[in-house]
Amino acid sequence: MFKNIKLSQIFSLSERAVVHSGDCLELLKIIPDGAMQLIVTSPPYNLGKEYERKLKLEEYLEQQKTVISECVRTLSERGSICWQVGNHVDNGAIIPLDSVLYPIFKDSGLKMRNRIIWHFEHGLHCSRRFSGRYETIIWFTKSDDYVFNLDPVRVPQKYPGKKYFKGPKAGQYSSNPLGKNPGDLWVIPNVKNNHVEKTLHPCQFPVELVERLVLSMSNEDDWVLDPFLGVGSTIVAALRHNRRGVGAEVMPQYVKIAAERIKSTVAGNLKTRPMHKPVYDPKEAGNRLTIAPWTVQSTSQQTSLLDEALS
Ligand SMILES: C[S@@+](CC[C@H](N)C(=O)[O-])C[C@H]1O[C@@H](n2cnc3c(N)ncnc32)[C@H](O)[C@@H]1O
Fold it and tell me: Is the model's pTM score more than 0.85?
């Protein structure tokens, strides 16, 4: 599937994988109108991280607006934009970025289809508010006739053996054999130090999160764009599923890692956390600390009573 895929630095519709080393607006201006099927990104949150300069919120939103409007121009009529964001923090006060970015998308004529909550377990421990353990993905489409493939992203039901108990279908299985709709709350581990995908980038998103978007919102050979590419997670997810991937990144050290990860993907040896792998289950892992000591005591008491009764 991956054979003969070369990584290019200059965008052209005949390529399959493109990383532009530089500002996303330089890349966007050479992408033709309507050429992108899916745009997935996690932009800077204006927190003053090593790859951004902290701006006044209004200035930040103006910058985002310029990029979003170029993204809308390059988006196909049946295409989707997914903007993955958390909070901007100003003097201890949080500003949920999805709420301040929403009007920009709405005013560009896009329609919101979901506000997906991405829940994860790890992050900073706050002392003056509850620790943040989710971010959001706001999903917009250009038209009402958009690509949405549910079957490739279905997840197992909790009770797949459930049957109709009355009516004309009584006795038949009630659930879809392909699984259920994953819903709009996604529990996917974030990329921290012990995550198999961790690089030196402080905020990369997990490939499995992008894979779900790629599979459901694009078809094979379609273009998937990430204007704030980081270490290339979006292109990795796109190539994995036979799509074309393109992105821009300003920091040379991330461009280098993105290129390495894309090459490993093509070679078939990039390690990622598989889609559908359940989050750590301590009981399944045999962790004995999951057994409450008081239940053990009562069990052994019961066992000895049983022993007595039998002897
Ligand atoms: C939140 S990170 C994205 C990480 C990415 N999702 C990943 O998995 O690696 C945002 C990235 O945007 C890059 N960036 C910031 N401004 C940019 C611009 N104007 N054009 C292109 N990239 C930019 C930053 O260097 C940073 O790596």
Answer: yes
